[in-house]
Every structure is written in structure tokens, then in C-alpha cells.
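Z., the sequence and structure:
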Amino acid sequence: DEFQDTDPLQLELALLITDPEAHSEANVDQFAPRPGSLFLVGDPKQSIYRFRRADISLYLKARNYLPVTQVTLTENFRTTEPIIQWINAVFSHLISTGPGSDRSSPLVQPGYEPLVGRRPEAMIGPPVTLLGRRAHGQEIDAAQLRELEAADVATTITTAIVEGWTIEGPDGEQRPCGFNDIAILLPTRTSLPELEVALEAAS
């Protein structure tokens, strides 16, 4: 795991263990690990440990020269399609492949792998709603503040229901949220009375 952070000695040991017939002085492309004996997992764009002898060129050589089956994980289940399109358009230009794969090369850069979005529709409603941004305009005590906060929470819940803010169900399908989809988390029970009053007032 984290193969992008492998140093030359670690890779050499792994290859010698999985290919006992190989010579210790062999190059990467001369190794042939036994089928099923070597499983490498890594993300070349996360290679940040060169000061500990991690060498991204080793990752690229192993990927290009070893007799392995490559599996690339590019599916994104979290981000909506418009954002995926923007990411692909921007980073396909920013992340360009370097001219060589040797450590002596002035630029060793893995190429960009386009993402594939699995959430085609944008959801209705804001991803985050921040309450309490507006000043109340006067000095108020703690009890009054709890009442105002409770009213803000009740108003936000009402807005979500009326406007049909969408959520993603267990089957991956979007649907309008209902009251049973909403939970109010509190650090203590102090604000419960004010919340109950505000929620009752909002029906």
C-alpha cells in the first residue's frame, strides 16, 4: 500500500521475494513476479516523501514495465457532474506528464486521470447552511440568544421542506427531504425547551 512512497530498496526486496529466479542486479523491467504474488496500491499524485528516498520514477517504471494488470480507480460517487467536468477541464491542463521517467529527468510528473462522475444531477438546496451570520443588533442575554437560534433552526427546516431540498437515499436516488430525515444535534440539553417552542410554532 502507498506504493508511491516506496524507496528503491523496498521495491527491490519486494521484487526479489516475488521473483526468486531474478538476479539481484536486475532492472525493474527484468523482473517477472509470480502470478498473484504482488499487489501494488498507490496514487502517484500523492508522492511527497522524496526526502525519505521515495521515488516517483519507481512507481512509473513498475507500472509501465512489470507484467501487471492495471486497475485505475477514477469513479467519483460524491461530486456532482458539473464539478467533475470543471475539475477535468482545469487539471488536465495543470497536470502534464513530464518528459521522462528517470530520476535524473528534470521533471517527473504522472499524467492526469480524468474522473468519472456518478452523481449526474445537482441537488436542490445549499450544501451547507450557516446560521447566526447576521448580528442581532443589540446586547441580548443567553436565554434570548437560545430563542433566536431555535427560531433560525425552525425556519431553516421549514424552508428545506417547503422548497423540497433533496437528499440522496440508500439506493443513490435523490428525493425531497422529509421531517424524519432531519436531526438536531446539541452539545447539551439546555436549548431543548426553546427548540420545542420554535418547532411547535412552525408546525
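DSSP finds five helices and four strands in the chain. Helices lie at 8-18, 56-65, 81-94, 142-163, 192-201.

Let me know what you think.
H.
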